[in-house]
Amino acid sequence: MDMWYMWFTFLAGLCALPAVLRTLCPYFVQDCAYMLHVLRCGARLELYKRRTRFYSILDCFLDAVRKHPHKPFIHFMGETHSYSEVDRESNKVAHALQKVAGLKEGDIVALLIGNEPCFIWTWLGLAKLGCATALLNFNIRSKSLLHCFSCCGANVLLVTPELCGAVEEILPALKEQSIRVYVLSDACSTDGIEGISQAIAQAPDEALSPSLRANVKCRSTALYIYTSGTTGLPKAATVTHERVWAASFIQRVSGVTSEDVFYLNLPLYHSAGFLIGFTGCIERGNTFVLRRKFSASQFWDDCRKYNVAVMQYIGETMRYLCNTPKRADDRDHKVKIAIGNGVRPDVWKEFLNRFGNIYVRELYAATEGNIGFINYTTKVGVVGRVNHLHKKIFPYALIKFDIGKEEPVRNADGLCVPAARGEPGLLVGKITTKSPFVGYAGNKLQTEKKRLRDVFVKGDLYFNSGDLLRIDNENFVYFQDRVGDTFRWKGENVATTEVADILSMVDCIEEANVYGVSVKGHEGRIGMAAVVLKEGKAFDGVDACRLVTNYLPVYGRPRFIRIQSSLELTGTFKMKKVKLVEEGFDPALIPDPLYFLDLVEKKYITLTKEMYNLMIAGDIKL
Q: Which enzyme type, at the first EC level (predicted)?
């Protein structure tokens, strides 16, 4: 009897265990599943690195071609390109570039191409030759565009015909640097730009020998992806083949399968679009729908047409979708997973309520960073969880940060102070063999600025993310804000110094202090500048508009100008921004003259209280 009672008690306890775990550790199963994914991905990457010849994401693509050659790889504007077709097109590109441009392993090639299939097979062709590729933001112009070549050392530029105008502006300087320019068309009337489409069309589509890329290793440079920073010019983040693999695993960790159709409408020059989207699809062996740019009105129709199961987003994406007129078929789709970053909790909730039970995999990462998080639960508003295995493999911490001084708080011993639970802190990731920080090409100064020394012990070394995060009592991680001279608007990073340099070109402006301010109902911060006018000059709204529209992309143009008699400086002569950011752009609270960039009038116009109210109400589009 005692034996039967013991067995009964044991079985009852065993049956009750799941309920107890759900009560005491409600995320236990999800934590374990995530840890298993991390271990599997880590083991796969180690296996690829230990092979006699490194197994790259390109090799993964070639295996997919052999496994399912006729499977659709890209849907684009009514066309469908199979895995084998994309493979053959990339072979033709590689053969042509090898013959015409003499490209070989180790060369660096810059791409100025929009979202279209030729971007995909051009990159694959370059990878087959063992070339590193610089992915240029096709919105940038002039000084910034030219700088991109200088910092990464690219010696060849491939451009599409519609973007030739941007290249022609800097062509004399490119010639001085001996950079060869090829346009993806049959011919070009501009001296110094050579058409290459005919050579590609006539090139053979046979496979290229792997010996052409025999020296490519896991730590070799695969890409240069540009990110804005405090220098005011784009910084070329060095992305190794190892980093490409790590980012491509995000789809797997998010639950994406090889049968899922992925919707890619983010720019391919972004790490999100290229690494998580494109190379993630290679890793999964699935199909993706490629769009030139995001369209809220066409989004769900595309998803229904192609049976999309996985979408990518930035915070603005979901807000735009929620702002479209409601339709009876809002939930008539097969989207089950959304992967991205930057969505506000209120928009997140509205999105789910309207469009159905979609698993939102909100993540935190940086192109050049060595630490990232992903929300593998259904909790709204978080970017991930503190997972002990993850933290052991990739050590990180949140430390106290003085926003006014823009530097970490240090104790009497000169060491950083950990942020308390629930307190925002600067995220820092320990630089180790498994979590390296490669830095920026051609920019040792900015690379060093991202390295934080003597954090917890003398001599240790951490990556400074430049971001404030917070961890709550349930171990959930929340993104709080950015620090320093960069803010985010319309899903793009804006470097304040670059904008200030352009404003200083305006004839009436003596000095400019650029920053981002929050606007109700919008993600990120919109550009604003406090300026001092030259003595005896009045503010010229027409000239200011002309300069910013000619030299800055839409997301980088300051929409508000504040005229001040002088700019407040710190003791080390840095411009103070904190107070300006807090004061915003309300004419009722600010005694200084305020102006608003009116793109219809093509000038900065006086900002009135009535206009301010309409902006806050959402009646004036920003």
A: ligase
- The stretches of 51-116 forming alpha helices (DSSP H) are 57-67, 83-100
pLDDT at 231: 43
**345 falls within a domain:** no
Give the chain's domain count: 4
To which residue do tokens 């003791």 refer? Answer: 571
552 has a pLDDT exceeding 80: yes
pTM for this entry: 0.87
Please, which pLDDT band fits residue 315 given cuts at 50, 70 and 90?
confident
Q: Which pLDDT belongs to residue 570? A: 58
Average pLDDT over residues 71-77: 98
- Check whether residue 542 and residue 426 sit in a common domain: no
Which has the closest alpha carbon to 240: 374, 38, 435? 435
**What pLDDT band is residue 229 in, cutting at 50, 70 and 90?**
very low
Confidence class of residue 577 from pLDDT cuts 50, 70 and 90? confident
Same structural domain, 12 and 68: no
- Separation in Å, CA 480 to CA 423, 463, 488: 10, 18, 13
Question: Does residue 436 sit in the same domain as residue 510?
Answer: no
Pairing of strands 221-227, 132-135: parallel
Beta bridge partners of 532: 511
pLDDT at 572 over 80: no
- Of residues 376, 316, 382, 377, the one with CA closest to residue 351: 316
Q: Per-residue pLDDT for 488 more than 90?
A: no
Task: For residue 58, give the CATH number of its domain.
Answer: 3.40.50.12780
Please name the residues in contact with 387: beta carbons below 8 A apart, sequence gap of 6 or more. 31, 34, 35, 38
Question: Which pLDDT score, from 0 to 100, does residue 6 have?
Answer: 59
What amino acid occupies position 520? K
Residue 57: give the domain boundaries: 51-293
**480 within a domain of the structure (yes/no):** no
pLDDT above 90 for 299 = yes
Q: Are 465 and 517 in a shared domain?
A: no
Confidence of residue 609 (pLDDT cuts 50, 70, 90): very high
pLDDT tens track for 162-202: 999 999 999 999 999 999 999 999 888 888 999 999 999 99
Distance CA 161, CA 186 (A): 10
Same domain, 497 and 611: yes
Q: What is the CATH number of the domain that holds 560?
A: 3.30.300.30
For CA atoms 474, 477, 479, 484, the dihedral sign is positive
What is the rounded distance in angstroms from the CA atom of residue 482 to the CA atom of residue 562?
A: 22
10 Å CB burial of residue 567 (0-12, 13-18, 19+) is middle
- State whether 89 and 235 are in the same domain: yes
Cα 232 from Cα 486, distance rounded (Å): 9
314 in any annotated domain:
no
227 and 88 in a common domain: yes
How many other C-beta atoms can be found within 10 angstroms of the C-beta atom of residue 539?
17
Distances (CA, A) of 380 to 319, 350, 362, 442, 482: 15, 11, 9, 40, 20
| Shared-domain flag, residues 24 and 82 | no
Q: How does 339-360 read in b/e, with b if 16+ C-beta sit within 10 Å?
A: bbbbbbeebbebbbeebeebbb
Last residue of a domain, one of 269, 293, 317: 293
